[in-house]
Amino acid sequence: MVSEHRVASHSEESKTGLPVLNGHESSTQATGAAGASSTATTVGPSLGRLFWARRTTLAAYLGASLLLSAAVVFAARLLPPLAVGSALMAALLSVGLLIFARSRAGERENHEPVANLRRELHHTRRGYERLFTAVPCFICVLDRDHQILEANELYRREFGATDRSLCYEVCKHRTSICPDCIVDKTFADGQSRSNEEVLLTGDGKRVNAVVHTRPIYDDDGKIISVMEVFTDITEVKRLQRQLALTGRAVAGTAHRVKNILMGLEGGIFIVSDGLEEDDREAIAEGWEMVERNVQRVSAIVKDLLYCAKEREPEFEADICPQEIVLEVRDLYANRMAEDDIEIRAEVPEPFDRGTFDPEGIHSLLCNLVANAVDACRFDPADDKPAYVVTLRCRQNGDGATLFEVEDNGAGIPDDLNNKVFQDFFSSKGTEGTGIGLLVVQKVAEEHGGTITFESKPGKGTIFTVTIPARDRDLATDPAGAPTSEESSAPAR
User: Residue 446 needs a FRET pair 20 to 30 A away by CA distance; which of 123, 142, 360, 389 works?
Assistant: First the structure.
């Protein structure tokens, strides 16, 4: 409402010659309109009193002149003409000065109400300006060419907007008008509209916002501009997404847990038969099935808890990322060997040390390795001599740490490439929950890093996580560190 009256004042200001407030000093003309009405109401009687005062002064002056004229006629009979003229001039001058002084005093009295009204108008206008500046929404006023006529302080600061800049360039980083622009629709029919949009701030941050439009009219009832008000709902969207993630996680793991329970039941049945028949080989086989499925349930529960709760990363200094890679390699070596999959770790010297969340990095690598193992296990090809999963850790020229997990499994189909980093993506049907990549993404973001991948269907996939330097000590690993080699745990 503030901006509506403010921009409608452009036409009035062009007629009256009053200055237009722009830049960071946005204001409203509502006060100006009210002040003008009040001024007209008050100044009218004041001008009447001023006119009456001047008419009274003129009458007094004429009366005094008649009296002086009569006195001069009488004195002319007794005194010389020169003396009479001098006395007449002095008398008229004295009377004129007295009347002028009285008139000026009256004018000052009549101007005081006007001055008071102007001061009140100024204070009211400044109050509306402060309100317009402090409102916690993004507000801008656009013309028919989508040029910004006015904007509040928050809008200018976040989007770097200036007068006459284009809204779609400022808010969307676009080079053309947005499809189905609601501003154009409001210009066309005068109807207020609302929509949910994603904006980009000056530094590239995404902002979810609800936008409302409202037409602004001139005195003739024509639409001269449209006001947009954006309400930031980014935090609301984040909470909605987290709730949706929790619900989808529960639904997505139901089939996986069902399969695991069936495996547990099968293992328990074999163990029971083995105990009845005193068959140690059957007992060992059944117990191995139980252990394997318990580990699967444990992994699912840990990943769910990792994603569901707000966990603050626990960064520690002097952490060696290559050592974490070797730990993960050793953790998976035996169980991968049972599936005839080889795991390798390529960690060239010198080892690096820096600031990391070791638990987060360990979880990140475990999930990437688990996905790589599944890609090999579910590969339909039968012409590969061996399946290999390779872990790498190195630094690039910028001091960032790169973690890579490569496999030669089934690869990701081309039509699924754009869905890989969507919530709970999985290409394994009911065998996968999609939680693993969500954990990887979360850990990478906590470290300020990024994750990318390259995949060729039937050839394999490489996932790369880049963690930028975090005030880390780039000194080399001290003597006694594990030998850097292309170490591997051969399949058995």
Answer: 389
